Amino acid sequence: MRKRNLASPCALPLSLGSQPTTKDETVVAGSKVILRCQVEDPQESYLQWSNPTQQTLYFGEKRALRDNRIQLEKSTSYELTISIDNVSLADEGEYTCSIFTMPVRTAKAVVTVLGVPRKPQIFGYREPLKDGQTAKLRCVSSGSKPPARLEWQKGGTSLSGKDFEVTEDSNGKTFTVSSHVEFVVSKEDNGVDVTCMVRHPSLPNSASSTTLKIEVFYVPIASIQPDPTYPREGEILKLECDGQGNPVPQEFIWRKEGVLTPLAETQDKVLLFPSLNKSDSGTYICSATNIMGTSEARYNLAVNGFRPLFK
Hints:
The strands form six sheets. Strands 1-9-8-3-4-5 form a six-stranded mixed beta sheet, with no helix packed on it. Strands 10-12-16-15 form a four-stranded antiparallel beta sheet, with no helix packed on it. The protein is 0% helix and 50% strand. The chain folds into three domains: 14-114, Immunoglobulin-like; 121-214, Immunoglobulin-like (Sandwich); 219-310, Immunoglobulin-like, CATH 2.60.40. It is built from no helices and 25 strands. It is rod-shaped. With 311 residues, the chain is an all-beta fold. It has strands at residues 25-28, 33-38, 47-50, 56-59, 62-63, 70-75, 79-84, 93-99, 105-114, 121-123, 129-130, 134-144, 149-154, 157-159, 162-168, 175-184, 193-199, 208-213, 216-227, 237-246, 251-256, 270-273, 282-290, 293-301, 309-310. This is Cell adhesion molecule 3.
């Protein structure tokens, strides 16, 4: 008796070459993603790409979905490659490449879309700070996916932020991140840049950042500069009171030690001696004043041919 082969032809194992292959893609929102599907043995069938909602995008070289962002890059028996331009967060998901053999074989490609963080904003600084005051700043950036990381710098030196917070945006896909920083300012911080930087995979070569220049009010630092440096009897002498401060001192008062009333040149930063004589010898005091306070400088003048002493 002849033996009968009961195996169905459809049950025969297919060649491994008929299994399509794809790869996952990560893309920045707004850019272009390319989806490539390849097969070694097409078995006289066609390749097809479908989106995460199982809508057919391309069947071979035939467009199935009216979306001008989706374009055919290459279509052969062995490859179907398409591209999606101006990718949005809504395009994220699992795409399917199918080959209609018996049975149908598929391969998946997961498209991950990175949400680009918006330029950070710094809050909490509205007016000049005072020497010794604590600066309290907050940095916020929205629209990132996954959540971005924030970094602080002051004058090029890293600052440690605190209270790092992550909240989901209203679209349910991206995130807003925020960070606080506090530091005590001094006069050395006047004019210093404070920067908040955003670090994120969508910004591989650079960080988005925002910088503000802080202003610090501080008490003047008074000093007296003589011209000439070594004055002699009969010469013209000019004493200039240099009051370095913020804001710039607007009031200068000259006094001579041992004299109760201020000198005639009270509101001028320069004290002028048209012709020195020995009676001008003594210690001169300049007071420089701004809204933060007053500081004094002293100058010892000896009009007798000796080198004057500085203090």
